Amino acid sequence: MTVRYEDFAALTQDSPTARTEWAAVVAAWAEPHRSYHDLAHLAAVLGLAGELAGHAADPTAVALAAWYHDVAYDPTASDNEEVSAQRAEVGLRGLVPDDRLAEVARLVRLTAGHDPADDDADGAVLCDADLAVLASPPAAYAAYASAVRAEYGHLDDATFTAGRTAVLESLLALPALFRTPTAQPWTAPARANLTAELELLRARAS
């Protein structure tokens, strides 16, 4: 899937304001420090959100949240989801109804922990689309993990290993990695990948 203005405009409206906003969003996702959280990841999440749209209460809000969920990505910061949500609140103002804008911002903030409530259909779709990479074949998962390490190149190995270990442990501790019925088959390969990476990191640390 490519990242097209036409897809963005279909969620908002075709206007000079929408085109300007789309260009700014794409430019943010194309920042050179992004090795994983880049335009390819955006395209993948948009595609998966579309595939899972039948499970969503507001597929348009989910798709817009996918556009913005990592629009702000600074590996040295701890508030990327909050900044991304605020970026959506500013950039989409006047392009979508206020209630949908509030839902988009809520969904973006939800990606900080990927733990939607049981009755949160929109949150389930967005989180499943964002975490789908965890269920990749082992070689593709290894490439993903390497790309994440590259984004944290400013950290020494010990610091990165501690932080990454905490992330993997938190993911494995979630009540469920995937929430939509369509994504349930992804659970076993994702848990296998996460466990294998965690074991490798623990071995290196020791």
Automatic annotation (TrEMBL):
One of the record's GO molecular function terms: hydrolase activity
Matches recorded under InterPro entries: HD_phosphohydro (IPR009218)
SUPFAM superfamilies: HD-domain/PDEase-like
Keywords on record: Hydrolase
UniProt entry tagged with the keyword Hydrolase: yes
Highest taxon above the source species: Bacteria
Protein's name in the database: Predicted metal-dependent phosphohydrolase, HD superfamily
Species of the source: Klenkia soli
